[in-house]
Amino acid sequence: MTKDTPPAPIPTDSTTQCGYIGLVGLPNAGKSTLVNLLVGEKVSIVSAKPQTTRSVVLGIAHHGGMELVLVDLPGFTVSRKAEVKKLRSAWAEGIEQADELLVLVDASQPHQQSLPILVTMVGQQRRPITVALNKIDLVPKPQLLPLLAEWQARLAELGMADQPIFLISAKTGSGVPELLAHWQRRLPPSPWMFGGEVVTDQEAPTRAAELTREAMMHLLKDELPYNVQVVTEVFKPLRRGRYRIEQVIRVAIPRHQAMVVGHQGDMVRRIGLRARLGIQAAMEMDCDLFLRVLVAKKGTQG
Ligand SMILES: Nc1nc2c(ncn2[C@@H]2O[C@H](COP(=O)(O)OP(=O)(O)OP(=O)(O)O)[C@@H](O)[C@H]2O)c(=O)[nH]1
Ligand SMILES: [Mg+2]
Q1: Whose CA is nearest to atom 30 of ligand 1?
Q2: Which residues contact residue 182 at a Cβ distance below 8 angstroms, ignoring those fewer than 6 apart?
């Protein structure tokens, strides 16, 4: 929440439901897009590049009397590279929080190599599982039936033949009401954990830093150094609800600094403009945004 509104009362009668749903899938499956759609606000950044989500983000969605605490996880990866070590620990931490799991599959790329490993991992979690085939807006209808049959067989192998499989598009919203109705049938009565006004667990400065990272991912595309970090150092209210935000973009080596700054500062200006508009839209606030690009000292980057 960015506004100083008092929290709405949390209903506690038996008509309410609440559940922590962990979103698991390969990188780029559309997990964060679905979280944002269900929450109705952008709480988790999205990009066309894989491994956009780096740490666990909670998106809190309310539909009728139901509160869904959506645990948005980094995409599952089997890579042993040092840089994805943190992603793997975030993944495990997020899974731990979830009462049940939603396995999200990119139906437009249904045969990625690490998918069977993901399915095995998910099967070991001993939690209720729902499967949703996403991005159906990109897939011709005749191709969906065999895919559905393939997933039914996979679930049967895990002893979960009775679990439903949903066909959805997190982009258009198609199939999403059916998914919500499924959770409505399934989640136990429970008081809500958050108020009706809360949309994420992230503090506003963290959210703003993420939105700057999203702008960088968009503008730098494949040139974006993997281990770039954005930190909000100042997040100060000014007059009339306006904020002053100062952020540091930390890169590992001078070559990356030059890339992010661009010719005569052209790139960092574009990043700043896009990030400011992104922050204003997602967080519903006006802001002045100041960016600095620094080369991190050895050992200060995680
Ligand atoms: N056409 C279409 N594109 C989608 C859909 N869902 C997501 N996308 C796009 O897929 C890309 C990846 O989406 P993300 O939500 O960032 O995917 P993610 O699973 O969170 O990815 P990681 O955080 O990297 O694991 C973005 O370009 C989205 O716009 C969908 O239903 N249809
Ligand atoms: Mg994501």
Answers
A1: 135
A2: 130, 164, 166
What pTM was computed for the model? 0.93
The pLDDT value given to residue 298 = 66
- The CATH superfamily holding the domain 17-186 is P-loop containing nucleotide triphosphate hydrolases (3.40.50.300)
Q: Point out the ligand nearest to the CA of residue 28.
A: 1
Select the more confidently predicted residue: 14 or 130: 130
The pLDDT-based confidence of 227 (bands split at 50, 70, 90) is confident
Of 71 and 81, the structure prediction assigns the larger pLDDT to: 71
CA of residue 298 to ligand 1 center, whole Å:
33
Q: How far is the CA of 39 from the centre of ligand 2 (A)?
A: 14
Asked: is 204-295 a CATH 3.30.70.120 domain? The reply is no
DSSP secondary structure code for residue 43 in this structure: -
For 49, phi then psi, to 5°, come to -90, 145
Q: Where are the domains of the chain?
A: 17-186, 204-295
CA 135 to centroid of ligand 2, rounded, Å: 14
- Express the helix, strand and coil content of the chain in percent, nearest 5 each: 40, 25, 40
The number of the ligand 1 atom at minimal distance from the alpha carbon of 134 is 31
